[in-house]
Design brief:
10 helices; two-stranded parallel sheet; about 15% strand; alpha/beta; Rossmann fold; 9 strands
């Protein structure tokens, strides 16, 4: 277990990966602040453990994010870990998608990360310790048809996270950007409510625990990126060496 601190913050902690991680950290003795817009989801998660505290928040609002981190540190103490699990995942053809949806995906998945990072990381860097975890995706490495908005947001998360790591690599703060394939959570169910691209749906689907374990190994080894699952590691290689083949397979899978 890589986490030895006392206070963790999980965005998107009301469901899915965030909820799973909050419960795991609380079971291991941490005090966990979960951030989410959904009040009912917050209650469901906090009711499962006395070590989890709810903070209702829209992470696309930078001032609200900053105020919330002030409040968390006042109430719970210095934050030792932040995991950015909040995300939305509607799929569809870019030109058929409402542009407000496309930009909302970027605002939540990428903009929310930026707001959280600028609110919490200066404090961690000043203390010389802490863990900062961002969630990208295999689709941020291997883009595919019908995933334009989501893949673009996760590619932005990767570049931001990589630069963030290099700008602060000697600060004492540990960074990990995790890039999983499909994970069996409510987020994937959200995608299924729109349209499911055939290529990722045919591939590997991990459990939340698989992803968390890989992040812990990433932090322990001091690696800035985690690639859980065999499919993800293969995808990194294929995208770098055979980008044309990757697109051909995607077109064949979707039929256009």
């Amino acid at each position: 277990m890589a986490f030895s601190g006392e206070v963790a913050v999980i965005t998107g902690g009301g469901s899915g990966m965030g909820q799973h991680w909050a419960r795991r950290l609380a079971a291991e003795g941490a005090t966990v602040a979960i951030l989410d817009r959904n009040e009912a989801a917050l209650k469901e998660t906090t009711d499962s453990s006395p070590g989890i505290r709810p903070y209702q928040l829209d992470i696309t609002d930078p001032e609200a994010v900053s105020r919330t981190f002030d409040r968390i540190e006042d109430e719970l103490g210095p934050v030792d870990r932040v995991a950015n699990a909040a995300a939305i995942m509607p799929f569809g053809r870019l030109l058929e998608e409402d542009p407000r949806v496309t930009t909302q995906v970027m605002s939540v998945n990428y903009g929310g990360l930026v707001n959280v990072a600028t609110a919490c990381l200066p404090r961690m860097v000043a203390r010389g310790r802490g863990d900062f975890i961002s969630f990208s995706s295999m689709t941020g490495i291997v883009p595919g048809l019908l995933m334009g908005a989501y893949a673009s947001s996760k590619a932005a998360v990767q570049f931001y996270s990589e630069i963030l790591y290099h700008e602060n690599r000697n600060s004492g703060v540990r960074f990990c950007c995790v890039c999983p394939p499909a994970v069996k959570t409510a987020l994937w169910q959200q995608a299924e409510a729109t349209v499911v691209p055939k290529l990722p749906s045919k591939g590997e689907t991990l459990l939340p625990e698989d992803v968390i374990n890989e992040v812990e190994r990433c932090l322990e080894k001091g690696r800035p990126f985690a690639y859980p699952g065999k499919q993800t590691r293969l995808g990194v290689i294929m995208r770098r060496l055979f980008p044309g083949l990757v697109w051909r397979v995607s077109h064949e899978a979707e039929g256009f």
